[in-house]
Specification:
The chain is α+β, with helices and mostly antiparallel strands. The chain is 30% helix and 31% strand.
Length: 153
């Protein structure tokens, strides 16, 4: 099966919401409302297999030289088929096109990101992330996610 990635459109919002909500209910991804997804649709990419939307991710700018991969998820039944890798590759190319040299993520799937060229780093090296998002998170003082970084320069 071939995975095809493209930028998300407003027509993708309901499926994006369902994918993200499934992970949020498990406590492994922050929830996003449909309104937020619509407002941030230009930051999202989607993956398809045979005309079916099966994965998503977003690239959020945190600073002049830093972006974060967020909301990376694959629909149940499609995991392990290279969809996550295809999404990360697409998002990395987006960062390159924007001339942003550093891509980070907070994750529970460290090995996945390491296979995609990321290395584990301390969260504290990303004050942009901490002050923008972490201060609003319920796990702020007990965060168990691991920070990973890929340098493109």
């Amino acid at each position: 099966m071939t995975v095809v990635c493209r930028k998300a459109t407003p027509e993708d919002v309901d499926i994006l919401f369902d994918i993200i909500q499934g992970y949020a209910e498990q406590g492994i991804m922050l929830p996003r409302s449909r309104e937020v997804l619509i407002a941030q649709i230009d930051t999202f990419v989607v993956a398809f297999i045979e005309e079916r939307l099966v994965g998503c991710g977003s690239l959020t700018r945190l600073g002049q030289d830093l972006v974060e991969i967020r909301s990376l998820g694959v629909t149940q039944g499609y995991k392990g088929q290279g969809i996550g890798n295809a999404l990360v590759d697409f998002l990395i190319e987006e960062a390159r096109a924007q001339h942003i040299p550093k891509v980070m993520a907070l994750t529970y799937e460290v090995r996945f990101f390491e296979r995609n060229g990321f290395t584990v780093v301390e969260k504290e090296i990303f004050p942009e992330k901490v002050w923008r998002d972490c201060i609003h998170c319920k796990k702020q003082h007990c965060c168990d996610e691991i920070a990973v970084l890929k340098r493109l320069d």
